[in-house]
Design goal:
Elements (H helix, E strand, L loop, with lengths): L1 H20 L3 E6 L2 E7 H72 L1
Antiparallel strand pairs: 1-2
Length: about 110
């Protein structure tokens, strides 16, 4: 987490330095829109903000899908644990019945 913060901070400093060094006015053409005499700093910062927003939204989609998967896996785990507990309860009686004859036969073998 700290490495991510350091990399993000270095990226922000790099973008800021680049923007300050390229502050000349430029003309921008985007599809049918034209912007004349806009500072390159503004263009760079807006581009970085839009890029950051896109990355954030894509990561949120991934995060939500992972959270849904974790939720479904937790539900599946709970149902399997409940099924396992039922099977253990069901198999507990026969084990006790089987263990009793073994205990009775063991003393007979020792006395013979």
């Amino acid at each position: 987490m700290q490495l991510y913060l350091i990399v993000a901070l270095l990226f922000a400093i790099t973008v800021a330095l680049f923007a300050v060094q390229n502050a000349a006015p430029v003309d921008i053409n985007f599809l049918i829109y034209q912007f004349k005499g806009i500072s390159l700093v503004v263009v760079i910062l807006i581009s970085v903000l839009f890029g950051s927003l896109i990355v954030f939204l894509l990561s949120m989609v991934k995060q939500v899908s992972l959270m849904k998967r974790i939720y479904h896996l937790e539900k599946r785990k709970q149902s399997l644990e409940a099924e396992l507990e039922k099977l253990r309860e069901k198999n507990e009686l026969p084990r006790q019945e089987q263990a009793a004859p073994e205990e009775e036969s063991a003393p007979d073998a020792a006395t013979s």
